[in-house]
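Q: I'm writing up a methods section and want to include an example of the input and output format. Could you take the sequence below and give the corresponding predicted structure tokens, formatted cleanly so I can copy it straight into the document?
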Amino acid sequence: MPLFSIIVPLFNHEKYIDEAIRSVLNQSVKDLELIVIDDGSTDQSQQIVKNFTDPRIRYYFQSNSGAAFTINRGISMAAGLYVAILNSDDTFHPERLAEALAVLESEPSVGAFFSAYNYIDDASVITRESQDIIGTLNLPTFSVPASEHLINEESDNWVLTLLSGNVLHTTSNLIIRTKLFDRIGMFESWRYVHDYEFFLRLCSKQRIYFARRPLLNYRFHGTNTLAENAARSVYETNLVIAHFLASWHPKIILEQPDKYNRLLDFLFHHLNLYGGERFLLAQLIIQIISRNQKGLPSETLSNSLPEDSLFQIVAPGLKETVSYDQLHQSYQWQKNETEQWWKKCQELETGFLWQKDQTNYWWEEAQKSLQALTQQKEHSAWQKKQTDLWWQQTQDLKQQLINANHLLGIPNMLRNCKQRIRSFFLNKVNK
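A: Here is the clean output for your methods example:
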């Protein structure tokens, strides 16, 4: 039995699946199985997976059935003590499983592990770092499992955090004890928010741990599922929240009205419906509670979505509010990016000032060296001039000596001496 079962739901991610698989195989924890379920890919994803020869990899192909069905199939095949999910376009930090294992083994009451995450682009370059995403949120490290009837500052903290936004973000962020699926249930068949619905259900029933170290890379690109139909994803989010609120703490209204008022105050100020407030919140809660005090099963809601007349009524307005909300978020993102780049520009300016100071210093040194070379050149020119003068004086002196020799008749005296010596010897010979 392996420690970890890593489930990779795969669909047309030939560009990213190799890197995703390698991020699992390169984990410092080696005791794992990797279950890749191809949800009907039509690109080269299958061939890329089959190029791996690691015996820990198991590959399965199926007709397209959606992310929730694919993940649930992987969970049903898992043999490990812990299940981790990795979407085929995301990647794990090499120490992700090791850090999760340390927490889950040392804290038996913790049922699931999550971490901070970075955004990466098509080229795996970090485009937004973890501290920019969660730095302003007061996220608790541990969650306290919700009591059946009580709301206080310690219980339900992660539920309330999630109701203000899905800060856990993606199924790739989940590492969970395998046995908990029997208690919590599997993923519901939502198209866009199956992760969010599961996280709400998980945090309302089980203690979790959140590591502030970024151990996950979430790839943001043009083909992310949420980019398909923003209005539909908002609609599903509102249905999930409405259903959850209708079934959460069913006795609180009657037994603890003061806690109920505090809950309403929190929801009023922090509940995030992504632009769908005017259309859905009151209507959906009233409908669900009036139909069934225990709340409608989420399977009923999700299965009725394609024919749901309510969505057809509110869709035009939802699209308008979603567009406004997306524009607002885009401006906020641009503001954050501008502030980030301004900070980097300031850092660069500081670096450039240092370089400018260094350049000025070395320029001054170079000028000093140039001045010294100029002085040396001038001195060398003086020496050459003196040498030329002395050489000319030597040549003049030599010429004067030559002229003096001729003037004194030294060459004629030598010739006369030679003649006299020759005559002397000739006379001696003749005698």
